[in-house]
Amino acid sequence: MSVAKNSSAKILVSACLVGERVRYDGMVLVCKDRLLEYWQQEDRVLAFCPEVAAGLTVPRSPAEIIGEGDGTAVLQGFAKVINRDGKEMTERFVIGAKKALEQVISQSIAFAVLKDGSPSCGSSYIYDGSFTGVSEAGKGVTAAFLEANGIRVFSEHQMAEAAARLTRRVKNA
């Protein structure tokens, strides 16, 4: 690995990607990437779930973004987060995004690696609001909020790009 051991740069990572039972269905979803495992060994990873941080339970009804747009539209008030039971969850998702940013600031986080597809964490795609498994390009609420505040967000499929960002940060430190 090419990251200097003495650097203290931290990475915010979706808690579900490191095996915590925080997903809506209570299942474990671990990202088995060598880079993530290495960062965990270096104590760089701050596991975080914005939905659980906002007080949502595990398990819980799945939620999707409804309306035109993605997490950015939710933050602007043009779309909502609704769970499969029809309950509006927008406020909880915005609270989770704000708590994620608080962690980023307080822990001097370099960037985030978040679970794609999630209505909170998706960075390249989310589900279309029909609860039928159809995805579309877009960002989740937390991913959009972090990026709006200058924090680069990668998905679990972009680990090489994330590693390159970390290497550049360490060299420039």
Provide tags for this entry.
173 residues, alpha/beta, 4-stranded parallel sheet, 6 helices
How would you characterize the overall build of this protein?
It is a single chain. By secondary structure, this protein is an alpha/beta fold. Helices cover 32% and strands 18% of the residues. The protein has six helices and eight strands, in the order E-H-E-H-E-H-E-H-E-E-E-H-E-H. It has helices at 34-41, 50-53, 71-75, 90-106, 141-148, 159-172, and strands spanning 10-14, 45-48, 63-66, 80-83, 109-114, 125-127, 135-137, 153-155. A hairpin with a 7-residue loop joins strand 6 (125-127) and strand 7. Helix 4 packs across helix 5 (141-148). The protein is globular and about 45 Å long. The two termini are 18 Å apart. Residues 1-6 have low confidence and may be disordered.
Structural class: alpha/beta
Shape: globular
Taken as a percent bin, the fraction of beta residues is 15-25%
Helix content: 25-40%
The largest β sheet comes out as: 4 strands, parallel
- Terminal Cα span: 18 Å
Number of helices: 6
Strand order of the largest sheet: 2-1-5-8
Number of domains: 1
Number of strands: 8
- Gyration radius, to the nearest Å? 16 Å
User: What string, H for helix and E for strand, traces the elements in order?
Assistant: EHEHEHEHEEEHEH
Low-confidence runs of at least 5 consecutive residues: 1-6
- Integer average pLDDT: 93
